[in-house]
């Protein structure tokens, strides 16, 4: 991974409270796992930014090295790596994802 790709990833994560590295875009996901994470985030109603790794092979490989995680999508919340589709799905089903987003001040907790 080049230093410039690492810096770009770091900047995206720092500048966007909820950052999703995915295949495709939020409007046109290019894989089922990326689509599922987008659906979860939209269902929760959280604003998020995406980066399409398919349009940039260096970013696609760089994010895997950056996170030490072999698969995409990858979700970051307030700079913290959360995980991929399975982890995000499990956290959403248990309510843990919504709690984390509320705790970080990104969404308001449903009382």
Automatic annotation (TrEMBL):
Q: Does the keyword Metal-binding apply?
A: yes
Extract the InterPro entries matched here.
Answer: Glutaredoxin (IPR002109), GRX_PICOT-like (IPR033658), Monothiol_GRX (IPR014434), Monothiol_GRX-rel (IPR004480), Thioredoxin-like_sf (IPR036249)
Mind telling me which residue stretches traverse the membrane in this protein?
none
* Keywords assigned by UniProt, alphabetized: 2Fe-2S, Iron, Iron-sulfur, Metal-binding, Redox-active center
Q: Tell me which residues make up the Glutaredoxin domain.
A: 18-82
* Pfam hit, one: Glutaredoxin
Q: Which family does it belong to?
A: Belongs to the glutaredoxin family. Monothiol subfamily.
Q: What protein does this entry describe?
A: Glutaredoxin
